Amino acid sequence: MQRWFAAFSKIDPDFSAKLARLRAYIDSNAINAGDLNARLAADHGVADLVALPGLILTGWYLGVAGSGDKAVCVAYVDALAYQDVADVLRPPSYAYGAYGSWAEKPV
Averaged over 48-67, what is the pLDDT? Predict the structure, then answer.
């Protein structure tokens, strides 16, 4: 978690404050995860937080914080996306084997 926090903080110097505000907003309004995006989008007082949950989730899933020139690779093998294929691919990655190796049925 420290590496994620450091990466997001490097990209956005206000990340820590935004994260604290998001946590306080969720706690004070008793918002469950399924309603978070809609509640944030409907409340203009937290407009700067609307994208934050998606950024965090995307980073966790892909193993990359941010995008474009500011992207920071935080996790590769441990990225959440690779857990979906870890039982089949070693290492758990979508870039496995030589080109076309995915075309043949595994033995």
Answer: 91
